[in-house]
Amino acid sequence: MKINRIKKIRGYTLIELVMSMTIIAIAILGTLLAVNTAALYSGDPLISYQAISIAEAYLTEIASKSFPSGTCPGGSRSTYTSICQYNGLNQVPTDQTGAAIAGLGNYTVQVTVDSTTAQLGTLTAGTQAVRIDVTVSHKSMDTMTFSTYRTNY
Q: Is 13 helix (H, G, I), strand (E, B) or coil?
């Protein structure tokens, strides 16, 4: 009678315990790696959105200026009155007075104003058109270029 009672009492062997602990450890490690990867790249959308905002601000500022009459005068950005004065601008983002904007030191803005490639199709003869390209770069993202056309009709 005693032998039957011993057979009914069962437990786990040492090998079964070690194997289950190994499987659980691998599952937890995989989950932690996924969470770590997500945390590393969680700031990327913020950087991209900030780059879009910077480019939009520059495009709006440049497109609001007048077309040049004759040559483009020099000067600083705070005194720019003509679209062509922005051509070749390469700087860390600043406000229109030239003051640095806190937190944007890792961004770079480049501006190209091109009147030779502005082919917009059915414009009235003699209408001036320029293409404005604003390129924003950051050390942890691909370069983003934004373009718009401005006409003088």
A: coil
Q: Residue 92 has what pLDDT?
A: 92
* CA 3 vs CA 8, 10, 11, 12, 147: distances in Å: 9, 13, 16, 19, 87
Residue with tokens 């983003």: 144
Length of the chain: 153
Helix residue ranges per DSSP H, the chain: 2-8, 14-40, 44-63
pLDDT of residue 2: 57
Where on the phi/psi map is residue 138: left (φ > 0), alpha (ψ -120 to 50), or beta?
Answer: beta
Residue 95 vs residue 118, higher pLDDT: 95
Can you give the residue ranges of every domain in the chain? 11-40, 44-152
Amino acid occupying residue 98: G
Note the pLDDT of residue 117.
Answer: 53
pTM exceeds 0.85, yes or no: no
| 134 closest CA partner among 142, 149, 145, 150 | 145
